[in-house]
Amino acid sequence: MHIDQASEAELKEQLNDLYEQYEQLAERKLGLDLTRGKPGAEQVALSNALDGILGGDYRAADGTDVRNYGGLDGLAEARELFGALLGVAPEETLVGGNSSLTLMYQVIDFAMNEGLRGEDTAWALNDQVKFLCPVPGYDRHFSICEYMHIEMLPVPMLDSGPDMDRVEELVRNDPDIKGIWCVPRFSNPSGCVYSDDTVERLAKLPQLAGEHFIVMWDNAYAVHSLYDDAPALASIADYCRAHDTLDHVFQFGSTSKVTFAGGGVAFVGSSERNLSTLKAHLAFQTIGPDKVNQLRHVRFLPDRAAIEAHMARHAALIRPRFEAVLDTLERELAGTGMGHWTAPRGGYFISFDTRPGLAREVVDLAGNIGVKLTPAGATHPYGRDEADTNIRLAPTFPSSEEVQASIDAFVVCVKLATVKQALA
Ligand code: PLP
């Protein structure tokens, strides 16, 4: 029954029943955790063959001994492989260490303090620097901004990606806006895939926004489909070439959720001009990345087909966890008006929206019975979800049984908070 149609007496009866269920859950002393957007143990084990794969052959295709120093851009074959994933040429690709987040930080740090086009273009010379942050979004993007004193302006995330009418209006009217964060395929946390129109408008955005504007294209889930029919993502690089904006777009990716989350390979794609500027900055930080790991990755996943076959094995492991969450939400909450949620075709998250003003309470209720959820607000800049509705669910890391137990308890917490609010 829809909550708005329930009489006061019905609500009171439901409330008593829910308190009883909640008490029973409390007695079970659960110790569950749906917060971690990281691969489970079986997933990382899919890549154990990386260990020892070189078999004593440390030579790259061009004869480079990968054990030694050098090669700031990364190994040629790694640039080719990962550049192709981003839709850019090897010369437009730099392969770094184990974390794309580090590369993102380095790009922002560089643009802020050194300037992408010489020191007089450093954003830090402006009184204010602002970034557009589609919400709900990824908290670590927001942390980088906060750390760098970049003011964050939230923009709504639609099923097609960021609300581009709003984005274009904002950049047209505010020259202090220097960038936008994007997770274009299986966005964190909504799971949406940006539409072709959105990708093209983002590629054109620098023309509206000005010379020193950049698009931070974090394609962390580029190959992370759960289903064969998952929507594809248009190539932003192709649109950038058509609109002459490649200098304004930095694409990122990594194998953190392909091979080892702590021991993968990260990469950035942009114009050759940007990469050579960036390299001049990176040269002060390192003599070169871990080419041994890059070669291990190329040997393990030599081409797109190998990556896809490997990702299908990941999907087989995590799809049942996603389905457990979605089936339970559908069975328990569909048509009740107590919340709505996304049903992603890939990625690592499900985004759940409570009725306004209830996300914090649901997270607290769950926490009090041993079910840890991502803190409410984490998906918004400064941790401020004004409507207090969004909760990010991350089902990959716990076992299937734990996922089921967590979502069963979650549903009770959502119902309890909603019925209480309706009676207040
Ligand atoms: N970008 C997004 C959208 C993520 O969700 C994550 C991890 O959860 C990362 C980046 C982290 O990437 P990396 O491990 O390459 O630093």
From TrEMBL:
GO molecular function: L-aspartate:2-oxoglutarate aminotransferase activity
Record has Iron-sulfur as a keyword: no
Gene3D superfamilies the record matches: Aspartate Aminotransferase, domain 1 (3.90.1150.10), Type I PLP-dependent aspartate aminotransferase-like (Major domain) (3.40.640.10)
Record keywords: Aminotransferase, Transferase
Top-rank taxon, per record: Bacteria
InterPro entries: AspAT_Ic, PyrdxlP-dep_Trfase, PyrdxlP-dep_Trfase_major, PyrdxlP-dep_Trfase_small
UniProt entry tagged with the keyword Transferase: yes
One Pfam assignment: Asp_aminotransf
UniProt-listed CDD domains: AAT_like
Coiled coil: none
PANTHER family per the UniProt record, alphabetical: AMINOTRANSFERASE, PUTATIVE-RELATED, ASPARTATE AMINOTRANSFERASE
Protein name per its UniProtKB record: Aminotransferase class I/II-fold pyridoxal phosphate-dependent enzyme
Species: Parahaliea mediterranea
Taxonomic lineage of the native organism: Bacteria, Pseudomonadati, Pseudomonadota, Gammaproteobacteria, Cellvibrionales
